[in-house]
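Sample pair:
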Amino acid sequence: MIIYHSRGAYPGRLAAAIAAGLLPPEPPPGRADLAAALAALGGPGAMQAEGLWAAGMDRQGRRIYALGRASRPDVVERAFASLAGLAGLAPGCFALQAVGRPVAWNDLLARVLQFLRLQGAADRVRLAGLRRAWGEAAWAAAGAAVAKGPAPPPSAPAPSRNLIYFCYGGSHSSVTAANIHLGRLPASHRARPKEILRQPLFDQARNQDLGLIRHMGTDEAGNAIHVVGLAGGKAVLSRALAELLALSGVPVADFRFEPTLQNAGIILRLGGYASRGLGWVAVGRPVCALGVWLKYPLYGSHVKEVRRKLGLTVLPPSDIID
């Protein structure tokens, strides 16, 4: 399996289509042929498509997919490799191939022109972006012919079920949810700021940890609880990771991805940027704790609902009223 990934869907889809033989390595000369190629890639709506796109098989019999992402390439690569190791997938069962520069700017400009009812100009801009991306897509498709899949890190056999809480940085929202799930923080009343600050892995993730799935512990039912930061485009990437498992024959019920960033407020986001983004830990970390404390009932309610769906004993209802 080869997955071509790019910022914005067009370059990755174009490389996948070339690798699968749906489109030629050289761009067609005429606008009509370019328009037909764009339609084969899913049309203008392809830029908003989520998850993996199946292009077919290449000459070596490998399945070809494309992924449009907003996350950085290294985050995608770490996330896929980390999940493969956790799921026990064989090394080399898939290969990731990043594809050059995006055409997202062309798509944005085309939308503006379309809004202004300049449809002809919008179509020309989209086709120009597609033509510009063609060379790098063909180069990526040729390079993937010898690409090797990432070697997943060695790990113990995965438990029957894995719950992965995810957020942007894997340092605050997902960590808080995981610690509530494991009973290290209360679920039915507001934790004290000191408890929030001292919880395991709080405000500890580094930039190079983005995409790395980290184990937090095992709950009373034997579910392994993990956290991960998927950066921008986290919803799309988490869906692609789930699709990778399904395509690899891993039972869907063995892994559950649970978003947590919706519980964060502006104060937590500002504190996280100051601490993790700018390195102002002394200033940002207490602000992060304050942000979690202010929104804590949301985290408690969310985790109790997740536990209920997993069939765990329902915790007493929170006595906090928002």
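The beta strands are 2-7, 52-57, 63-69, 95-98, 162-167, 214-218, 224-229, 255-259.
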